[in-house]
Amino acid sequence: MASSTRSAGETPAIVWFRDDLRLSDNPALSEAAASGAPLVALYVLDDAAMGEWRPGAASRWWLHHSLSSLASDLFARGVPLVLRRGPADMALFSLLSETKARSVYWNRFYEPWAMRRDGEIKARLRAAGLKAESFNASLLFEPAALRNGQGEPYRVFTPFWRACLAKPAPAAPLPPPARLRGAPAPASERLEDWRLLPTMPDWAGGLREAWAPGESEAKTKLFDFVAKRAAKYNETRDALGEDGVSRLSPHLHFGEVSARQVWQSVESEAGPTGAAYLRQLGWREFSRHLLFANPDLPEKPLDRSFSRFPWRDDNNGLTAWKKGRTGYPLVDAAMRELWRTGYMRNRARLVAASFLVKHLLIHWREGEDWFWDTLVDADLANNAASWQWVAGCGADAAPYFRVFNPVLQGEKFDPGGVYVRRFVPELAKLEAKWIHRPWEAPKAVLEAAGVRLGESYPLPIVDHASARARALAAYAER
Questions:
Q1: I need a surface site. Which of 150, 179, 203, 395 has the fewest CB within 10 A?
Q2: Does the pLDDT value for residue 7 go beyond 60?
Q3: Mean pLDDT throughout 150-164?
């Protein structure tokens, strides 16, 4: 273990952790360690700065365990993690006063509120004669460096991704620092006192079963994915009954693994067959690019004509959707997977989101808010850009006339009903032929499977054909 002692007059450096809760490929940590100064590691919970986009309940559960993992990893290297709550500038300057540190290192956020705040903090630090350095640790490419031929931000994914691929390849990931020295630890708040975990009722049992936050688990998951599934990702990513995806998104969001680490691992192990997965990293970059260029993306449609869209108030429909009681098995399985595990496969997200905004004509922001609260990988840019894409009002958006048929989607991507049986157990004994359309099953088939429509499982809350016609009429009105 590294020593936590320092010689007289030796000033420490502060490493401000944010969405980079790892030791490997952490430029801020590596630069701070290379300075030779003893380190003070800091994490600030600044809910006020995030406003309505403070982490949701599922994200807070993940954050608790991720911070606990990071604290253990740092402590093993001789560096305690200091936890502070409140405005980040106050917490940081208070720690500077306590430790007499003369330098601060951090990795950049790209959310609008964070860029404003961080810019002000950096200016104040430098005006006070302190060293303030920030780095890109979360993205493959800096958002400001990508512009189209007219010098404007991209609004279409394909030319954006083409421009990314034309740039020099992402830098090789950094190893964890060979040596860390910890400064004498100032007072820290207790993680337990932050109450990030649910109390009563404890709804996080499914999250505990499904996930193990932390850098070690992120590395294990990445290794398993590139060894077994990355080369087949294009064929298996939409197969809802198979384990064909990486499940790295929450680890990426909290920075337990970096995009550069994922890029290098997939490219080196899967080669050209890994391109489909790397393209998914491209969509993550594209979402950040959109938010960087459009700070109001989470609140306002990119296509301003949607400001006049005739969204419906339908509390009963919204509740049925949230609870997975719409009567459409694929939609219900997706929403119940979300509630139980804090996660949903991308294909399922598309179908469930389309159902809300097009079958029910409920505002996309209702879905955005629900996903923000229930997803362990809730990401401001991804969440906003994806909901706008499905609603047809965002960048490179789905055509307004594309209304996913949940029955056909289920039969195509869950043909045996494996996914539905897993998350809608009341339909588990129903034959595959009927599992995505139980209302059409003969009475004897339903009785044999123990399904009582309208009792044990709901009838569809809306007819697909009628809902599609209503949606198309609404889109024509805007």
A1: 150
A2: no
A3: 94
**Do 182 and 13 meet the contact criterion of CB atoms below 8 Å apart?**
no
What pLDDT is attached to residue 254? 98
Instruction: Note whether 215 and 257 are within 8 A (CB).
Output: yes
Domains of the chain as residue ranges with CATH: 13-137 (3.40.50.620), 139-172+214-293 (1.25.40.80), 304-477 (1.10.579.10)
> Is the pLDDT assigned to residue 2 strictly greater than 50?
no
Residue 44: strand pairing partners: 84
Query: Cβ(355)–Cβ(406) under 8 Å?
Result: yes
Residue-wise pLDDT tens digits, 89-136: 999 999 999 999 999 999 999 888 888 899 999 999 999 999 999 999
Longest alpha-carbon distance in the chain:
85
The first and second tokens of residue 308, run together, are 């006049």
DSSP E strand boundaries for 291-368: none
Contacts of 221 (CB under 8 A, 6+ apart): 246, 247, 248, 251
Closest-CA residue to 248 (of 263, 234, 238):
263
Give strand pairing partners of 182: 39
Which residues make beta-bridge pairs with 131? 103
The span from the CA of 427 to the CA of 451, in Å, is 7
Q: What whole-number distance in Å separates Cα of residue 5 and Cα of residue 185?
A: 10
Instruction: Report the distance separating Cα 146 and Cα 142, nearest Å.
Output: 7
> N- to C-terminal Cα distance for the chain?
64
Angstrom distance (rounded) from CA 476 to CA 100: 63
Burial level of 130, CB count in 10 A (0-12/13-18/19+)? middle
Compute the distance between CA of residue 434 and CA of residue 457 in angstroms, rounded to an integer: 14
| 71, pLDDT greater than 50 | yes
pTM of this prediction? Answer: 0.95
Does 44 score more than 60 pLDDT?
A: yes
Q: Could you tell me which residues are beta bridge partners of residue 103?
A: 13, 131
Q: Is 3 helix (H, G, I), strand (E, B) or coil?
A: coil
420-435 average pLDDT score: 98
DSSP assignment of 148-184 equals: -TTSPPP-SHHHHHHHHHHSPPPPPPPPPPS---BPP
Please spell the DSSP secondary structure of 15-46, one letter per residue: EEESS---STT-HHHHHHHHTT--EEEEEEE-
Burial of 189 (0-12, 13-18, 19+ CB in 10 A): middle
| CA–CA separation, 343 and 418 (whole Å) | 17
